[in-house]
Write a structure and sequence with these properties.
Pfam families: TetR_N. Residues 13-72 form the HTH tetR-type domain. Keywords: DNA-binding, Transcription, Transcription regulation. There is one protein chain. The chain has 2 domains: 5-64, Orthogonal Bundle (Arc Repressor Mutant, subunit A), CATH 1.10.10; 66-203, Tetracycline Repressor, domain 2. Helices cover 68% and strands 0% of the residues. The chain is elongated. The protein has 11 helices and no strands. It is mainly α. The relative contact order is 0.12.
C-alpha cells in the first residue's frame, strides 16, 4: 500500500508529481503502451521507485488521468445548469472532443477496463450525460433517435485525429464536431437505429 501524498517527505512528493507529469506527457504523445521504464527514465527516477509509488500500470494511468475525468464531469455539470439544453449538449460534445484530440492517451484511459480506473466517476459521468441528452430531447432541439451510445461513435471518429499535430488535430476536431452536431439536430433525416456499443467493448 502506497503512502498518501500528504504523508510523504518533500522529495518523495516531488518525485511523485514529476512521475505523474511525465506519465501524462508520454501517454498523450504515445498512448498507454508506453513502458513504465520509459516513464521512470524521463522522470529521472529509478524503476523501483516508480513501482513503489505506483505498483501497476493501471494505478499510474488512473492517477495520471484523474484531472481529465474531473474536467469531463465539470463540463457536464456546467451544461446541466445551462438554461438552453441544446447549447449545453453541444458544449459538452465540443469540449470533450477538443480534449480528446489533443491527448492520445485520453480515449484509452477514459474507456479502458482497468479495475482502478475510477469506475464510480465514469459511471456518474455516463449517467449525467444521459440526463443531458434527455433535456435536449425534451426541449425539441435534439433528434428523438439520438442515443447516449452515439457518444461512442463520436469518440471513435474524433479519436483518429489525435495522431495529428496538436494544432491540426484541434482544428480538424472542431470542424468534424460541427458536422456531427448539425446531424444531431431535430428535424434532420431519419438514421439507422442506434447501436448500443459499450465504450469498454469497443475501445477498452
Amino acid at each position: 500500500m502506497t503512502a498518501e501524498p500528504s504523508q510523504m517527505r518533500a522529495d518523495a512528493k516531488e518525485n511523485r508529481a514529476r512521475v505523474l507529469t511525465v506519465a501524462r506527457e508520454l501517454f498523450a504523445e504515445r498512448g498507454l503502451e508506453v513502458p513504465m521504464a520509459a516513464i521512470a527514465r524521463r522522470a529521472g527516477v529509478g524503476v523501483a521507485t516508480l513501482y513503489r509509488r505506483f505498483p501497476t500500470k493501471e494505478s499510474l494511468v488512473a492517477e495520471a488521468f484523474t484531472e481529465q475525468f474531473a474536467v469531463c464531469q465539470a463540463f457536464i455539470d456546467e451544461a446541466l445548469k445551462d438554461p438552453d439544453p441544446w447549447r449545453g449538449f453541444c458544449t459538452v460534445i465540443e469540449k470533450v472532443c477538443r480534449l480528446q484530440a489533443c491527448d492520445r492517451g485520453f480515449t484509452a484511459a477514459f474507456t479502458a477496463s482497468f479495475p482502478d480506473l475510477h469506475t464510480e466517476v465514469r459511471d456518474r459521468t455516463w449517467q449525467d450525460f444521459g440526463a443531458l441528452v434527455r433535456r435536449a430531447k425534451d426541449s425539441g432541439q435534439l433528434r428523438a433517435d439520438f442515443s447516449p451510445h452515439d457518444l461512442t461513435l463520436v469518440l471513435i471518429a474524433n479519436g483518429g485525429l489525435s495522431s495529428l499535430p496538436v494544432e491540426i488535430a484541434t482544428a480538424a476536431s472542431q470542424r468534424l464536431v460541427a458536422y456531427l452536431l448539425e446531424s444531431f439536430r431535430a428535424g434532420t433525416d431519419v438514421l439507422p437505429p442506434p447501436v448500443p456499443v459499450s465504450l469498454d467493448l469497443v475501445l477498452g
